[in-house]
Known about the structure:
By secondary structure, the chain is α+β, with helices and mostly antiparallel strands. The strands form 4 sheets. The protein has a 5-stranded antiparallel sheet with strand order 2-1-5-4-3. The protein is rod-shaped, with a radius of gyration of 55 Å. The two termini are 44 Å apart.
Amino acid sequence: xxxxxxxxxxxxxxxxxxxxxxxxxxxxxxxxxxxxxxxxxxxxxxxxxxxxxxxxxxxxxxxxxxxxxxxxxxxxxxxxxxxxxxxxxxxxxxxxxxxxxxxxxxxxxxxxxxxxxxxxxxxxxxxxxxxxxxxxxxxxxxxxxxxxxxxxxxxxxxxxxxxxxxxxxxxxxxxxxxxxxxxxxxxxxxxxxxxxxxxxxxxxxxxxxxxxxxxxxxxxxxxxxxxxxxxxxxxxxxxxxxxxxxxxxxxxxxxxxxxxxxxxxxxxxxxxxxxxxxxxxxxxxxxxxxxxxxxxxxxxxxxxxxxxxxxxxxxxxxxxxxxxxxxxxxxxxxxxxxxxxxxxxxxxxxxxxxxxxxxxxxxxxxxxxxxxxxxxxxxxxxxxxxxxxxxxxxxxxxxxxxxxxxxxxxxxxxxxxxxxxxxxxxxxxxxxxxxxxxxxxxxxxxxxxxxxxxxxxxxxxxxxxxxxxxxxxxxxxxxxxxxxxxxxxxxx
Length: 492
């Protein structure tokens, strides 16, 4: 629930909840007093002045015109009864002596001094918490006696203290209800904000391990979700920065190690030439060739480090083009076949499908991928001179949504413990990539980054008949029609 809705509901509740509760309280009071129908109660209250007027009119007529009726006990009892039903009572006197007191008055004020009230009549008097108005009428009995009638009439239907007490109770009830509603509404708003404050302080102190959970909906829930997304992003950014720092340290360590070996070799051969150890033209030529080869290895290593660094920082731009991977592989392998034959290795490409298999790829980056894998196969099999039939088989298969390139050599295969790690940076399996064969530990890591940059994936496995098998899976490119049927555009 949003904060705005909560506030609106609290305002409405502050108005209607006290009214509803007060109405329920009044109904309870009516029920406790034995009033079964509230409508009858108010109808009776509204009729009370009319009934009182009838009785008072009759009494006034008797007092002025027929005072002898007041000497009849039956009539006096009847008139007192009728007055009592209207919350009124009559006090009659003869020659200053009280002759009759209404039973209603005796019941209402059993300890009242009626004689004093007769002699010193106030305008109002309070009996049993009710306020009564007084009216005095002097009259004469038929025998000449002096009489006085003192009428007590209730002028309010509720006790006199009920109004201030009721007002104070209503105000207190409304205030308490408002305070409770304000407390619960504010708590439902403040508690999540306090949690967000605690989470913000933890984030400020660098503690990003505590999850920020949204306990409510609405604006605060959205703010909690935003905090959680921020925390996750910050944690990922920090973890990534730490990983980059670790990679940088490892990169510097490997660079220094991989560059130190060829530099030491170059220095050794240069010193041999300077010291006259290479004292023949044949030795000098051999030394110079070794120096050139070591320098070429360093140049290749630096090139791979530079490319790997750019791929790792995602600063390499891919120039995607739609190519037929079958024809591309045919032309690429034709160029590689001559160099491989010089190493006594056969390159076999089987392509039995004539239909084009279109993919979206960067031809230059894909060429680097294939070259690295072929070089890995050549180095891998070159260490095992006992392998009689050295060959590399390549074939392309069409999958439902991808094109699969499989490169398989005839070497002894890859150790099972090395398979999960051969695409990691600077990882050197003992049989394949070592310093003697010029491996930098980055060739297959570059392969993985380029293939993933194409939206594909790469993995290695051992073939059933022996040898290593590298599998490259690249997404296919689909041709779609636009406004004109003759205009074909490629969606990749």
